[in-house]
Amino acid sequence: MALHFERTEFDARRDRLVIEMADRKLDAMLLFAQESMYWLTGYDTFGFCFFQCLVVKADGTMVLLTRSADLRQARHTSTIEDVRLWTDRAGANPAVDLRNLLNDLDLLGCQIGVEYDTHGLTAFNGRRLDEQLQTFGKILDSSNVIPRLRLFKSPAEIVKTTRAAALADDALDAALPLIKQGGDEGKILAAMQGAIFEGGGDYPANEFIIGSGPDALLCRYKAGRRKLNKNDQLTLEWAGVFHHYHAAMMRTVVLGKVSKRHQELFEAARDALVAVETAMVPGKTFGDVFDAHARVMEAHGLTRHRLNACGYSLGARFTPSWMDMPMFFAGNPEPIAPDMTLFAHMIIMDSETETAMTLGRTYLTTEGEAKPLSRHDLDLIVR
Description:
Blueprint: H1 7-23, E1 28-31, H2 34-41, E2 53-57, E3 62-66, H3 71-77, E4 82-85, H4 94-104, E5 111-114, H5 123-133, E6 138-141, H6 145-150, H7 155-175, H8 185-198, E7 209-212, E8 232-242, E9 245-255, H9 260-279, H10 286-299, E10 311-313, E11 324-327, E12 341-350, E13 355-364, E14 371-372
Parallel strand pairs: 1-5, 3-4, 5-6
Antiparallel strand pairs: 1-2, 2-3, 7-8, 8-9, 9-13, 10-11, 10-12, 12-13, 13-14
Helix pairs in contact: 4-5, 7-8, 9-10
């Protein structure tokens, strides 16, 4: 079987979930988030683009309802022993199949938690689910249960993330020789992703972000490539990925002469990231981390050029995004605690001068100072 953790690791995760369910008086949970299924059982698929659900009872019993295409996937990649299928056909409503399964599991009239806040349950399927369960039992939105458990990484998970961080560094090393006048964005992307694949890594949960010239101010991937000029700017945001665990990095590289504005923005980004590192310790909150970033940006007169969030948790994630919760934004009360893997990014976009500057890396929180997982320093990269 293609399991990436020992059985004892999965048993411990199941036990943590069962305890949490007991505290919330849940007789069962309906898991639709692929991250939850992977974390709990190792089940590895992109088949969550269709209707599928992992039912977890209060005693830890698990049953997966999925399509025929994922039957062998579940048996080969997970600890799930009981796999049921709903059939693709005209007029199929798998929510009915799920209700019948819940009835077979003696859950009629019980208190059931549902993961609603996930791309694995579309609004269309969510409505069909609610129609079937509205008289079946007491249904509670339990979307935050497993994400809260996944926030704290086990030693085995930290090993995966550390390997992912090394692959992220390898990707930057592969890109740097290609970042020059006439350099092709397509070749840069190919080198970065190739380094990760060659190192035994995986596809990221979202596309790498690349943009040069005016497009260096974009925070999302977009189609289209260009070649670099003698004096240019290139923004990259990417992640090393190992067994779906992500370690993200972000840099804006300056080509040619460093402008006064680029230098100003870099110094602000560096100062802000150092302040964030200082705040990323037990006793502080995610909101405190954001405030540390915001204070530096304000001191540099850049409040209107910054974003309203400056990072987030990372872990094992699936399409369409490697971003995990919680995030660094104003007022977030979630406490910083040891054994979190957190990505902090300083993003400054001056649209008036079309100047971009970014700086970001992934950290492991400890009992004391946060530990950067990248071997690269925070110096401005000039080519």
